[in-house]
Specification:
Elements (H helix, E strand, L loop, with lengths): L1 E10 L3 E4 H5 L6 H8 L3 E4 L6 H16 L8 E5 L10 H9 L6 E4 L5 H14 L5 E9 L9 H4 L4 E11 L4 E9 L7 E2 L22 E2 L1 H22 L9 E4 L4 H11 L6 E2 L2 H4 L6 H11 L8 E8 L3 E8 L1
Parallel strand pairs: 4-5, 4-6, 11-12, 11-13
Antiparallel strand pairs: 1-7, 2-3, 6-7, 8-14, 9-10, 13-14
Helix pairs in contact: 3-4, 7-8
Bound molecules: acetyl coenzyme *A (ACO).
């Protein structure tokens, strides 16, 4: 018995911060950010907006579209590194907001690859017969962890949440294959000390630079391209699928140049690559489910299509899922 995504949802903070807004307090320009990353704006949480509420809103949309109630779920699995609490887990926080008591709810920490990991974990449980209906969420708020004086990282990240309802189902549709990879020795290319201090843009609180996201962008760029190309080829091979038969790649939206370089190396034409980074920036684990939800809404995905999800992020972690929609 395999698993299939039957509905998706997304939710964004109410505040959009454009590159021009950033120009007002940072030595940067709309031109630089657009040309080096493809980002035009990002949504950032305010101090009165808990990320868990955003994740619950995305989940409610996905559940409604699936025609299911929270009480129908067997598990909630969340890809996130942005929980406001070390414990309870983010999964438990969302569970309470949804009112889906007593089912297992837990987190998978794989930074930007969080949704890819969480989806793979959900699928494995469903194949084992443990769960029949699972809510898989990707939610992050990396804007609250940046040093706003560090223009090399602060301009990249936005906040958000995306959710997918997965049901176990026999037949040819659903998740065909997943591959997960990690390389802890590259931890220092992208890291964040766990201090619990958050700093939304609307407060005076500023993070100590030592406790903000640290990133070696150019090195990360090269590994991200290489690893996402490799894992995309490998997951297709594993599923015995020709890469050319993939209808749409919905990848992690970290940088327009990374997305395009991966597509080029895979020999995929632009129309087979979904890009929405211009409006959201890098929303970490939320980026793939937000993009997937938009792709579905825009009619870019049809029943029977082969859809590839891929991502790379802190850890380092990377991975891909191949789906027959
Ligand atoms: N505004 C204006 N100038 C800037 C900015 C900015 N926001 N940031 C950096 N610069 C300047 C630098 O100071 C540097 O100037 P200098 O040569 O005078 O020192 C110049 O621009 C070039 O800087 P680089 O860091 O070499 O720029 P690069 O072309 O590598 O782009 C970037 C930087 C966008 C971070 C790129 O390396 C990147 O995207 N890397 C991947 C990072 C990433 O995606 N991280 C997300 C998590 S991991 C993942 O999701 C895959």
């Amino acid at each position: 018995m395999g698993s299939r995504i039957i509905a998706t949802g997304r939710a964004l903070p109410r505040t959009a911060v454009t590159n021009r807004d950033l120009e007002r307090f940072m030595e940067t320009s709309d031109d630089w950010i657009r040309s080096r990353t493809g980002i035009g704006q990002r949504y950032t949480l305010r101090s009165d907006e808990p990320l868990a509420q955003l994740a619950a809103a995305a989940s409610r949309t996905a559940l409604e579209r699936a025609g299911l109630k929270p009480s129908d779920l067997d598990a909630i699995i969340v890809g996130t590194v942005s929980s406001e609490f070390a414990f309870p887990s983010f999964g438990c926080q969302v569970q309470t907001l949804l009112g889906a008591d007593s089912i297992p709810a837990y987190d998978v920490a794989a930074a930007c690859s969080g949704f890819i990991y969480a989806l793979s974990v959900a699928d494995a449980h469903m194949r084992a017969g443990d769960f029949a209906k699972v809510l898989v969420i990707g939610a992050d708020a990396l804007s609250t962890f940046v040093d706003w004086n560090d223009r090399r990282t602060a301009v990249l990240f936005g906040d958000g949440a995306g959710a997918a309802v997965i049901v176990s189902e026999p037949g040819p549709r659903g998740l065909l294959s997943s591959l997960l990879r990690s390389s802890g020795r590259h931890w220092d290319l992208l890291s964040l000390r766990a201090t619990g201090v958050r700093a939304t843009l609307d407060t005076e609180i500023r993070r100590n630079p030592d406790d903000a996201i640290k990133m070696k962008g150019p090195e990360l760029f090269k590994i991200a391209v290489k690893s996402m190309e490799e894992v995309s080829r490998q997951v297709a091979e594993r599923a015995r699928i020709n890469l050319g038969d993939v209808s749409l790649v919905v990848g992690h939206q970290a940088n327009m140049r990374i997305i395009k370089a991966v597509a080029e190396r895979l020999g995929l034409p632009p129309e087979k690559v979904f890009i929405n980074i211009e409006r959201y920036g890098n929303t970490s684990a939320a980026s793939v489910p937000i993009a997937l939800d938009e792709a579905v809404e825009l009619g870019r995905i049809h029943d029977g299509d082969l859809v590839m999800l891929n991502a790379c992020g802190g850890g380092l972690t990377w991975g891909a899922n191949l789906l027959r929609w």
